[in-house]
Amino acid sequence: MFAPSVYPFGLTNGVLLFIIMLMRSIWRTLDRGLARDIGLVCLADGVVGLSYGAISVGGGLPLWVPILLSIVVFAGASQFLFVGIVAAGGSPIAAMIAGLLVNTRHIPFGLAVSDVIGSGWRRFAGSHVMTDENVAFAMGQDELEQKRAAYWAGGIGIFVCWNIGVVVGGLAGSVITDTDAFGLDAAFPAVLLALVLPALRDRSTRTAALVGVMVALAGTPFLPAGLPVLCALVGLLFYRAPKGALEVSR
Fold it and tell me: Which segments of the chain does DSSP mark as H helices, in order?
């Protein structure tokens, strides 16, 4: 009678034991400085996750929505965008499309770290925990073993800290009536700005971004929530890839 409940319990313990052993092996491979940097990024993402959970629940969504999105989707930019569009009265379909477009950046990420992730179930799991941060950590290493250690340490660490932050923030959001008063709504735009600034050194990228911003701002008073973000993709028409990149692709 108790066999069905014993099996999942044993399976869960086995998975947890595997994750613990994997993380111990990873941390032994990383040097102290890199491990510290990864730890700080994980904590920072946890704080952003806290703001996401608080804003989502404070905006009227049930607690299970941001938690489910964080586990299944695990893409901070897309999650913030989805919640923001829906909370503003936009269509969930438009919010989903906007989120998918934001996540298209994972395509070149996946190509860049395909040999780092591995094959089989590792490729599936590694794709799920892929973020801007752990890809950057992995690409900054020289040896393949170090790249894998940096990628998995960053991916698993960020996944855990993000989801813990979302739960804590969601619980706080159910108590806090005005999340804007704490400045939590500024956390994600600040993160996005930090990610975008390095790319704006390129003139063509600046032009495309400026056109996209102008189109989005011009359409905001007239279009339903979520559509101005999609219309901002017009800026891509003004982007010109560097000659060096075209030569490499050939």
Answer: 3-29, 32-58, 64-72, 76-87, 92-102, 106-112, 114-117, 121-128, 132-139, 144-173, 187-196, 203-219, 227-231, 243-249
Indicate the burial class of 59 (C-beta count within 10 angstroms; 0-12, 13-18, 19 or more): middle
45 in helix, strand or coil? helix
**Residue 17 burial class via C-beta count within 10 angstroms: exposed 0-12, middle 13-18, buried 19 and up:** exposed
Q: For 223, which DSSP code?
A: S
Indicate the domain borders of the chain. 13-185, 202-250
Q: Each residue's pLDDT tens digit in the chain (250 positions)?
A: 434 444 344 444 555 565 666 666 666 667 788 888 888 888 888 888 888 898 888 878 899 999 999 999 898 888 888 888 887 777 788 888 888 887 887 887 888 888 888 888 888 888 899 988 888 888 888 888 888 888 999 999 999 999 999 999 999 877 765 555 566 556 656 666 665 676 677 788 888 888 888 988 898 888 766 677 778 878 878 877 655 444 433 4
User: Over the Cα atoms of the chain, what is R_g?
Assistant: 20
